[in-house]
From TrEMBL:
SUPFAM superfamilies: P-loop containing nucleoside triphosphate hydrolases. Residues 4-241 form the ABC transporter domain. GO terms for molecular function: ATP binding; ATP hydrolysis activity. The keyword Transport applies. This is Nitrate ABC transporter ATP-binding protein. Belongs to the ABC transporter superfamily. It comes from the Bacteria. Keywords: ATP-binding, Nucleotide-binding, Transport.
Amino acid sequence: MALVSIENVDMRYGGPEGTLAVSGLDLSIARRDFTAVVGPSGCGKSTLMKLVTGLHIPQKGAVVVAGHEVTKPVSIVGMAFQNPTMLPWRTTLDNVLLPLEIVEKHRHRLRKHKDEYVAQAEALLETVGLKGFGSKYPWQLSGGMQQRANLCRALIHEPELLMLDEPFGALDAFTREELWCVIRDLHASRDVTIVLVTHDLRESVFLADRVVVMSARPGRVVAEHPVPFERPRDLEIMYRPEFNEMVQALHGEIANARELA
Ligand SMILES: Nc1ncnc2c1ncn2[C@@H]1O[C@H](COP(=O)(O)OP(=O)(O)OP(=O)(O)O)[C@@H](O)[C@H]1O
């Protein structure tokens, strides 16, 4: 059974006369899969993320996550967005621990087992190359470091599903590539399903098992492309002609989707 199933979903903002963001949206995501979602600007990619996480409930159709229809925010999901929005008055470690104060299952255990959770947060920070930075405040970290910490925060409650909405958009090219490798390794080493929304087609092909292309608004899925490159992948793969052919083909599809709008 799919971990996520989006079935013929319509989502309109601002009442009956408002903007129809997605229409007839269908998508199925298998456990452990890494899916990238690409498409023209404003096609409803972030809307898709919010539908899966239960931040929006569709007017038509259904979103089913782990066998349950989504009717409220889903706790098995971790989310990371473009802007890390760390709380400036909390240390990096305390920012990473924040979801545990919210997710019910952990909230009850947190007080008694604080040491265990702190150790877990420190281990995560180490995985993303931030060993020893837990006591710093977010404003003492670079943008790339904040985004790394943000990933830890999205993972601390051990979500089955990690939703990443343009998480590397604001970073320089080198930092972005470094973080691609962090995500690649997280996916390889953990039992996690990942959905990544991105404008960066190289990022989508480097990281994903499958690239889903959306139409211009109202968004729906117009194509799904399995990524044929073997894993583990390293950054050199981007120099391969087949890699660039796939990126160019996706680019052409999105340009067409824009024109049809
Ligand atoms: N709260 C809202 N109220 C009204 N319209 C909205 C709202 N949120 C999104 N929209 C509109 O719905 C459409 C889809 O928005 P969404 O943010 O999902 O697109 P996107 O593909 O993520 O965009 P981008 O690629 O530019 O980040 C857009 O046209 C947007 O203007």
